[in-house]
Amino acid sequence: xxxxxxxxxxxAALIALVGCTTARQQAFNPEEMALxxxxxxxxxxxxxxxxxxxxxxxxxxxxxxxxxxxxxRYVTQGEFITMLGRLHEYGHEVIGVLGxxxxxxxYIDWALEIGIVHMYEYxxxxxxxxxxxxxMAVAIYNYTVVHDLHGYLWGIxxxxxxxxxxxxxxxxxxxxxxxxxxxIHVVSAKIERSFVPHDILSRAEAIQSLVRVxxxxxxxxxxx
Length: 224
What we know:
By secondary structure, the chain is an all-alpha fold. It is built from 10 helices and no strands.
């Protein structure tokens, strides 16, 4: 009975994550909007992720004066946590309220409060510092664990893939998150079979992994 109740609660959490769509999300065509980015074309490898990222509310065209996605621009830790928070808000209530500290504040407070990132553990989280690929993996992994998603994603989507060829170059605190997220197809190699853990995260790479999290959960609830 306890196992049944645990499964029921997890499924309810998954439904909450993907089951609701806001009026704003219904009101626009994400493919049409993605092509309004002047640096995004339909044949770019990241095009599908940009479309899905707009559907999940992770990104948007800033303005007609700034119609750029900037796929190669490096991502700060605060920016990445903000995108992760927006993914969580897809189907949930808005996280907190906009505080005096700026656009990132409520998402950072949320991430620190529930243990997605830590100020003095693993790496010293700082919103204006650039995010590495291994730091991204830890944040996503912690998110799936905190919300009881990882076990179900692992059980349904996992493969028994080999380790990245540069596995031992990954910081010890990121090895399990990187490997497990690889096995549920959330992160992938950057160069051949190498993860390149200390490379700075680009916007295209960030959107790719976050969209894979959203799509994985959606696939669980809509298998056909």
